[in-house]
Design brief:
Number of strands: 0
Number of helices: 6
Order of helices and strands: HHHHHH
Distance between the termini: 21 Å
Shape: globular
Largest sheet: none
Radius of gyration: 17 Å
Oligomer: single chain
Length: 121
């Protein structure tokens, strides 16, 4: 179940980034521009896919925390801090500095260590 949660959360962030790149910044300068922007946003396929992925992640999260303690389950969710940037580099051709890559490795390693220790307690 954690894999479904992580995949859906990561996919949603990638979909939202693609949509944000296509739609641009929110035009707060006029009601008409904002209305048009919002209409385009709700019709954007990437936004729709992102919302679907978030909804699946939400229900998966509820199923996970119904079975195990929140303090234990939440440790694994920080893996998204690794999967989202790695997916962004792979799918969106974003770049990351050496410091960012080291940080991602530390986060993923820390999540595994913490969740293993918590599971054994």
């Amino acid at each position: 179940m954690f894999a479904v949660l992580l995949i859906c959360d990561t996919a949603a962030q990638v979909f939202f980034k693609v949509a944000a790149d296509k739609t641009g910044e929110i035009p707060f300068y006029s009601i008409q521009a904002l209305s048009t922007y919002l209409l385009n946003l709700v019709q954007n396929p990437q936004i729709i896919m992102g919302v679907i992925a978030i909804v699946i992640a939400f229900f998966t999260w509820l199923a996970v925390i119904a079975k195990i303690d929140l303090s234990k389950a939440h440790l694994i969710t920080c893996l998204a801090y690794g999967t989202v940037p790695l997916s962004s580099m792979w799918l969106l051709h974003e770049t990351a500095s050496a410091k960012q890559l080291i940080g991602i490795c530390l986060i993923i390693t820390g999540a595994f260590i913490a969740s293993k220790n918590e599971a054994n307690s």
